[in-house]
């Protein structure tokens, strides 16, 4: 793709921005964004509408004229609702003043990085990882240090903590953990969370915990544990989250950061200078989501589990496919043996041959090059349709491809 910045302007533009790679998920999606015949499984977004009580709350707030500047850090009512929500689901007391409402989970990660990084600081990140988090490190002047997950022939994904710790240098500032993980579906064991907490305490490192998918854990095992349960209020811990996934509010652009006690003023400034705050009518809708949305979360989890099981069982039956059954999230990471080309080329080929849109694993870093990702936050009937399109084509490749290790 040609450079998007005209040559005459390049000397005057930020080198950090010029060096950002294209988002390969968008590259695939743009090939068939307006083709209604495509089963779109490329982007991490559920296919249900935002629940009516949440929509109604925003409409009522708009009609009441709640459209002016408000609290930059979030309304007191919303921050109290966030505190109550964490107490209800994780049995943890988090003071309302520790919450900072953000413009989605993306802005939450941006502010977390801005709050702690200086030029040249390193952030260690298990990879493949959400590409946005990696690029935020660079935009903030930091250096991303990838530590690869281990992919096993039996379909398991693990993270070697000793390898993670060995990557620490004198320039390391933070370790970024997304658990459950996009794109792999890996979930950090509780014992490893404790080891990481103790390691970071001893060395004065920050933990940035992206806990967006904590509810999306299956077979009755959820929610996933939170670092907030393991850490003190003054530990070097920043937790980022979003309203997007739990309540199908991706377009509302609202999320939150939990900061240590004593950093509230710093995050209030970051809000003021980044965004001036989230729209007040959106904050009212978010409050209703927290207060009334538990049943909807449970419905989503059950629906995702049904779709996950359909896709896992169908793809596992193919000799030339290795499936990494997710421990959490609503993503399925898999490898097709015998599908030629790069990960991006494979995703494009599947789109053209089957009309199923998937994300290339390389979108999440070079560690994901051999893999593809499916979002299964969809109706089970749509999962069956995707499988009906994928399986016949993938089966044609198996005659010339080596079998996947079993």
From TrEMBL:
What sequence ranges are listed for the domain Aminotransferase class I/classII large? 41-390
Q: Which cofactor does it need?
A: pyridoxal 5'-phosphate
Point out the coiled-coil segments of this chain.
none
Keywords (A to Z) from UniProt = Aminotransferase, Pyridoxal phosphate, Transferase
Question: What is the protein's given name?
Answer: Aminotransferase class I/II-fold pyridoxal phosphate-dependent enzyme
Q: Which organism is it from?
A: Salinicola endophyticus
Q: Which Pfam families match?
A: Aminotran_1_2 (PF00155)
State the family it belongs to. Belongs to the class-I pyridoxal-phosphate-dependent aminotransferase family.
Q: What GO molecular functions are on record for this protein? A: transaminase activity
């Amino acid at each position: 793709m040609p450079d998007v910045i005209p040559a005459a302007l390049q000397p005057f533009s930020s080198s950090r921005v010029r060096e950002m790679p294209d988002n390969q998920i968008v590259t695939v999606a743009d090939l068939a964004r307006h083709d209604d015949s495509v089963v779109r499984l490329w982007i991490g977004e559920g296919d249900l509408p935002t629940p009516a009580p949440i929509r109604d709350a925003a409409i009522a707030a708009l009609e009441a004229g709640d459209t002016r500047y408000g609290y930059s850090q979030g309304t007191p009512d919303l921050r109290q609702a966030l505190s109550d929500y964490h107490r209800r689901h994780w049995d943890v007391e988090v003071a309302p003043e520790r919450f900072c409402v953000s413009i989605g989970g993306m802005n939450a990660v941006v502010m977390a990085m801005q709050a702690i990084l200086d030029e040249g600081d390193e952030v260690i990140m298990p990879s493949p990882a959400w590409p946005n988090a990696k690029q935020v490190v660079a935009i903030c002047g930091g250096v991303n240090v990838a530590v690869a997950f281990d992919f096993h022939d039996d379909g398991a994904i693990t993270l070697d903590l000793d390898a993670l710790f060995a990557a620490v240098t004198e320039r390391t500032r933070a370790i970024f953990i997304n658990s459950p993980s996009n794109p792999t579906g890996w979930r950090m064991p509780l014992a490893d969370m404790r080891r990481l907490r103790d390691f970071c305490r001893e060395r004065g490192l920050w933990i940035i915990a992206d806990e967006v998918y904590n509810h999306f854990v299956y077979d009755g095992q959820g929610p996933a544990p939170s670092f907030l349960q393991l850490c003190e209020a003054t530990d070097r811990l920043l937790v980022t989250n979003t309203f997007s996934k739990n309540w199908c509010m991706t377009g509302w652009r609202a999320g939150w950061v939990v900061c240590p006690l004593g950093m509230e003023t710093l995050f209030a400034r970051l809000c003021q200078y980044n965004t001036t705050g989230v729209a007040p009518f959106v904050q009212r809708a978010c409050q209703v989501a927290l207060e009334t949305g538990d049943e909807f979360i449970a419905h989503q989890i059950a629906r995702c589990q049904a779709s996950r099981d359909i896709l896992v069982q169908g793809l596992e039956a193919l000799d030339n496919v290795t499936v990494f059954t997710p421990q959490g999230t609503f993503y399925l990471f898999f490898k097709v043996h015998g599908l030629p080309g790069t990960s991006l080329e494979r995703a494009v080929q599947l789109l053209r041959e089957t009309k199923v849109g998937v994300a290339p694993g390389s979108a999440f870093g070079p560690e994901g090059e051999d893999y593809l990702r499916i979002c299964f936050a969809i109706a089970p009937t749509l999962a069956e349709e995707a499988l009906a399109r994928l399986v016949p084509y993938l089966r044609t490749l198996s005659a010339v491809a080596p079998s996947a290790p079993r």
